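Lab notebook page, bench 4
Experiment: in silico fold of construct C2
Operator: M.H.
Input chain length: 235 residues
Purpose: comparison with the prior construct
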Amino acid sequence: MAQRPGSADFESLWSRTVAPLEPPNRRGDGTSEVGVVDPAAWPDLGAHPRLYVKRQRAFYCRPAWNAFRRTPTLRRELRFIRRARSLGVAVPDVVHYDEGASERALLILAEIPGVQDLALAVAGALPRERNTVFENVGKMLAKLHCAGILHGAIYPKHVLVEFAAPHMVWLIDFEKARRVMSPLKAATRDLARLLRHAPFVTAADLDSLLGGYPEPLRNRVRSHVAGYGDVQAKR
């Protein structure tokens, strides 16, 4: 699973100082942390924008296709980033991935320049611009969902929107992604999560977002998610 550009090696990268973005996530004996670094300090990884470094120790998931096999969560994220890209979803560039001894895994992603999260992107936006943003969100999510992929962590902070028109949408953080039985299940679960955590989404926004889905899936999804969050109250 290793992906090694230049002279970088696992122990060297693991031991380097990274500015943490948030406190480590702990699960049993496992830990997961994410930080950011200036690429100038890590020239052996090539020329990139800022780098986001994810490091995990004994942090596992169990794939549905093999529940008895523990898989590093970052390996799952790498797999679904690649799958999403193959479907035409805009995702971060993977700079490096490797696994080391003592149940450790390391994933390094390039920063996406010129973006802001969904909440900031639509705050104060003109109606036409807001409509475009939500249409683009729907188009990206539909590519995943129609392939039976559940993102699993669709929060506003994981939906990034380019400042400049036409406001391309990027999806990040695929650690909880997985395959599900149907596009409807993938769409309803992800959109229900988004609407619960995005009180700024109006009924008109939801209409624009669902416009990115093919019919008849669009109407089936609508009947499942229209009551979540504050959407109904805003009709």
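Observations: The chain has two domains: 10-110, 115-229. The first strand starts at residue 19 and ends at 20.
Next step: discuss at group meeting.
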